[in-house]
Records
---
Amino acid sequence: MGSLRYDRDQRYQTIREIVRRLEIPVDSRVLDIGGGTGDLPRVLGFESFWTVDVFGGGPNHVRASMDSLPFPARSFDLVLQSDALEHIPARGRGAALEAMARAAGKWLIWIGPVHSELTARVEEDLCETHRRLFAGREMDWLAEHRYQTLPDPEQVVGTLSAEFEDWAWWPSCGLLRWWSAKRLELQLDSGVYRPQFEAAVNRWYAESGWKPDYRVPEGVPSYRWVFVGVREGKLHPEIDSPPVGQEDLEEWRSLIPVIEALVEPSGLGPDGQATEEATARSLERMAGLLEVLSTGPMPVPNFLLKWFGGGRGG
């Protein structure tokens, strides 16, 4: 699951751009709260990068809850949080935000979804689509959003802004683009495997497709909001301005690989049968693997054996 990296890269590219604009030195001491399982350290390139979460692991990882961080006040130059607050109960979010702000010595960057009626409806649409495509199975992380509810934007900005001399708060990630990308991802994950197309989309978005999502224009629904705080001094007045692109044919050409990959043959025909020898061999290998797995403690459903076997069986 998760063939497209749109959801992850929207956050990561936004954070990377903010770090660049703040001119944060590479040797700064950085803490990612709620992280530890992603590629954010590699994307940002800091030399001293710590993560804290009740899950996860890896270098410089500390197991702790968000509302009880085991660090002295202002012990990190930069504190980050990306799509994590919505995964803890609402009653603990105030304490988690306060702990986050206390740990930041110079800068804080927070990005994540916040509640709106339209956002709740969009997430529920994705949950329903997932159940329909995957035999009633829930989309776990979005189902958790429903259970925990999304953060209150006034609580987020009100709590964090009280700790910083200057701060900015803006809408990010267009809700329509996010919904469209997640619907596309679900269709790809449930249908014909299209690795070339998925790779082309991922490359395009990481290179230039993220730019319109950095800041959403006024009046356009957004999925996420961004908070940036500085302990001392002032933020650049255009910290939230959209990245400047060429906005001409050369910039638009970055979409060509996506268009070309979209029309490339997938190796399967409209009936789901292999049309190329290599694809047929690959499906046979997967069918053999599934037959082996089906003899274990969790048998594979017959309809999967039939599909991966290229339509064999009664």
---
Amino acid sequence: MPDAPSASVVVSAYNRPDYLIGSLRGFARQTRTDFEIVLADDGSSEESRAAVDAWLQGSDLLWRRVWHEDDGFRKTAILNKAVAQTRADYLIFTDGDCIPFPDFVALHLSLRRPGHFLSAGAVRLSPPATSSILGGGADETGIFQWNRLKAIGQPGRFKFARMFAPAPARRVMDIVIPVKRTFNGLNASCWKADWAKVGGFNEAMGYGSEDVEFGIRLEAAGVKPIRVRHRIRALHLDHDRPYAAAQEVERNRAIKEATRRSVRSGVQS
């Protein structure tokens, strides 16, 4: 492992140690190993941190945790603190409820381009599939096989199945399927210099579109999106969202739209 990793993988975390360990198991199986894990911990309990740290200490992953006190949903603040402590010049963002495919890091690094960010995606798992995976009902390689996922309760819909097509077909789908090229915090990447150029994530934002708003500012600064939704994949474990307060989501939407209007005004002027 070189002194400076090729990428810093910033993983958002808040309690749910079983989910986070599932995600970290995925990073322990990557085809490239020249990366660091930086946990952006939005106030996990001591018990949760201890469970995850015990697992990490038995792994070969290069990692560190950046933590602050639990004071409600402050993901943007802890992301900025975590990024400030990264050592690579390229940043990959994901969440602690997402299990990366084995080529996740390798593809983010091979598809990166100066002046661009990558807009990737995830397969949103059903509650039965999530329960089976967390309960050990699917082996750690089988969960990346479409037939195996269907066997443990994942609906057999095209929008899920297409994520398991051969690589050439997924590349074509990224070109022809009209999916928005937004910055998605569960699977996206950018250069650290570009994160700094736009002032990082907007810490005025709570839950809802906080990652999309960051992407709008990246584009306003001339950083162009590349759609790789079907090529770079993760499995998104199902869970409830007790922090998703309607009032806060609406406030975030207003901030996002204000940012968009400001960008448009700036472009027109």
